[in-house]
Amino acid sequence: MTDYHILSIDRDTLLADLSERLSVKRFEHVLRVEATALELAEVYQVDFERTSVAALMHDYAKEMPDAAMRELALAYTGDPLLGEFNGNLWHGPAAAEIARSQFGCQDVEVLKAIAEHTIGALGMSVLSKVIFVADYIEPKRKFKAVDKARKVAFEDLDQAVLLKMAGSIRKLIKDSELIYLPSIENYNAFVKKTSSKTI
């Protein structure tokens, strides 16, 4: 058993809760994201406990009914525009709200890492970037540039963040889906921040 200092429950209790509320496929994904995030945390010198908590919580709300997920997401963000989208955007902020209101997490950086793992944010912490990228490159992810993304992730975290942002926006355009405006703002900020503009 691993005691967490930033949650009101320990790791074993959180794992048991996750295994009950998530499908086997989703639960296994969460464990792979945690393992990948901890590898990145070692490289980028991020606290392991905070990394573990953020990784395990990142998809906590993923399989909730949409109405409940939306309510939690809006409670966390206070952004009515977010309510016009769907669970793909809601589940991160919803999970952060659960971590805060149900599990007593007061660590703002951890809450942001949970909330920001889908589209990123302006001024992301290294922890947020680690969770964002780990979710993108965990071992069972399969997409055209996954090998490149995995290599880049351990060499240039900002560039890996940019790769994920660009890939997500490309997919939304390809599928003729609405794009949440902050996604574009986040992408533009990382293009400016990184030295290479090649995606």
From TrEMBL:
Domain of life: Bacteria
Sequence ranges assigned to domain HD/PDEase in this UniProt record: 22-149
EC number: 3.6.1.41
Keywords: Hydrolase, Iron, Metal-binding, Nucleotide-binding
GO molecular function, one term: nucleotide binding
InterPro entries in the record: Diverse_Catalytic_Enzymes, HD/PDEase_dom, HD_domain, YqeK
Reactions catalysed, as given in the entry: P(1),P(4)-bis(5'-adenosyl) tetraphosphate + H2O = 2 ADP + 2 H(+)
PANTHER family (UniProt xref): BIS(5'-NUCLEOSYL)-TETRAPHOSPHATASE, SYMMETRICAL, SLR1885 PROTEIN
NCBIfam families associated with the record: bis(5'-nucleosyl)-tetraphosphatase (symmetrical) YqeK
Protein name: bis(5'-nucleosyl)-tetraphosphatase (symmetrical)
Highest classification ranks of the organism: Bacteria, Bacillati, Bacillota, Bacilli, Lactobacillales
